[in-house]
Specification:
CATH superfamily: Tetratricopeptide repeat domain
Order of helices and strands: HHHHHH
Structural class: mainly alpha
CATH topology: Serine Threonine Protein Phosphatase 5, Tetratricopeptide repeat
CATH class: Mainly Alpha
Radius of gyration: 14 Å
Distance between the termini: 40 Å
Number of helices: 6
Strand content: under 5%
Oligomer: single chain
Largest sheet: none
Length: 108
């Protein structure tokens, strides 16, 4: 892990694991999804996004929807993507609302 990423990663890890903080879990997922300072691992990203979404974090739900929408680390599934985008929307994430609407217009 590169030095400039180590502290933020550690803070997010503690926020997620020790405090059950949904945004901390979402950011951990983002580190893994993007391979920021660590090896990219989309399965690990998915796991953290799921935890985040279960903790009612809009960014985590949106990110999980994005994985399904784009088939990144999971089998592409527009219906599942729409479900997570809807959860993100309900939690106040406008991009979730927009993507939910787009998939709905396409018949998913």
């Amino acid at each position: 892990m590169t030095n400039n990423i180590e502290k933020p990663f550690q803070f997010c890890q503690e926020a997620c694991d020790l405090l059950n903080d949904g945004l901390g879990c979402a950011f951990l997922g983002w580190f893994y999804a993007e391979g920021l300072g660590i090896k990219q691992d989309l399965q690990q990203a998915k796991s953290y996004f799921e935890t985040s979404c279960n903790l009612k974090d809009a960014f985590g739900c949106y990110s999980l929807g994005f994985l399904y929408d784009n088939g990144q680390g999971v089998r592409q599934n527009f219906q599942t993507a729409k479900e997570y985008y809807g959860k993100a929307c309900d939690l106040g994430e406008q991009d979730g609302c927009d993507n939910y609407r787009k998939l709905n217009e396409k018949g998913y």
